[in-house]
Write a sequence for this structure.
């Protein structure tokens, strides 16, 4: 059975189609869902908030998108334990919406950075890293101006203790606190990262490592679906 | 309302401004760059206006993790 994934399209999203393409290349049934809708499609198994510049990055990146009509449905879906992944701008939106800890700030260099980076997998018992090994190095591109994840020291300590840090930069490109590239919420169903796994699903395009991240998500969706079937 | 990076938060924009001012020959200890949002609010008193803007700051205009804000009311 294919997994139905809703990729939310905000005004200013620009990685929405790549996300759909990459997920479908990995066997999912992903489609775009317009931000002005107030409900997710029936049988949505996971939601992806894609990269881009929603609402022109006005005020702070992601600060306006969290008020989009669809976001109430996304928040409700997450509250019920639904899988939500935010990539780049999607990560910024989830942080601004309070669904993920921390906030994304301008890169320390104040430059837009667009290149491959190496990521270290902190743990592999998560919805986003189950196909990886702990400590594995992944090459995935970043392309952002406001990608420096920030949290105060006491929050970083708490996240470390609870194992909510998923991915770290091996060579910190943007000044992120504690080299953090990706985090999840305490219950592990809301996940976000600045790098773009959807741009790294084919070695022909530089790296196929992003496929490990997206396929991990799809595995989790599949496990949940078969678990639900077994219960029914 | 005025919003600025909290003390101790790295402000690369402020640093860039600071360096540029130094290049022009000005003596500057530190520059921090924030933002001003002018709001026209119809309220029965200054206190009420302040209270409402304070709520706006908490919910949208400032991110308390990284930003501090001040509200100034002019009648």
């Amino acid at each position: 059975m294919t997994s139905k994934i809703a990729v939310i399209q905000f005004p200013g999203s620009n990685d929405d189609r790549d996300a759909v393409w990459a997920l479908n290349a990995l066997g999912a049934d992903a489609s775009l869902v317009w931000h002005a809708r107030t409900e997710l499609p029936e049988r949505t198994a996971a939601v992806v908030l894609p990269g881009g510049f929603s609402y022109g990055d006005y005020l702070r990146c992601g600060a306006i998108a969290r008020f989009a009509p669809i976001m109430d449905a996304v928040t409700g879906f997450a509250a019920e334990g639904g899988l939500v992944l935010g990539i780049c701008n999607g990560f910024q939106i989830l942080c601004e919406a309070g669904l993920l800890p921390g906030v994304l700030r301008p890169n320390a260099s104040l430059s837009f950075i667009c290149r491959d980076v190496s990521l270290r997998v902190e743990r592999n018992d998560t919805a986003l890293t189950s196909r990886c090994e702990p400590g594995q190095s992944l090459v995935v591109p970043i392309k952002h101006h406001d990608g420096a994840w920030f949290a105060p020291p006491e929050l970083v300590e708490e996240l470390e203790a609870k194992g909510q840090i998923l991915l770290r930069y091996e060579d910190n490109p943007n000044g992120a606190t504690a080299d953090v590239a990706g985090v999840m919420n305490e219950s592990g169903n809301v996940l976000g990262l600045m790098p773009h796994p959807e741009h790294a699903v084919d070695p022909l395009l530089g790296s196929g490592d992003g496929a490990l991240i997206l396929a991990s998500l799809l595995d989790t969706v599949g496990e949940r679906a078969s678990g639900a079937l077994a219960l029914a | 309302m005025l919003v600025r990076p909290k003390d101790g938060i790295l402000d690369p924009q402020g640093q860039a401004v600071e360096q540029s001012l130094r290049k022009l020959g000005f003596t500057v200890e530190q520059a921090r760059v924030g933002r001003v949002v002018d709001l026209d609010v119809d309220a029965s008193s200054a206190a009420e206006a302040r209270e409402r803007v304070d709520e706006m700051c908490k919910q949208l205009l400032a991110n308390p993790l990284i930003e501090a804000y001040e509200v100034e009311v002019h009648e």
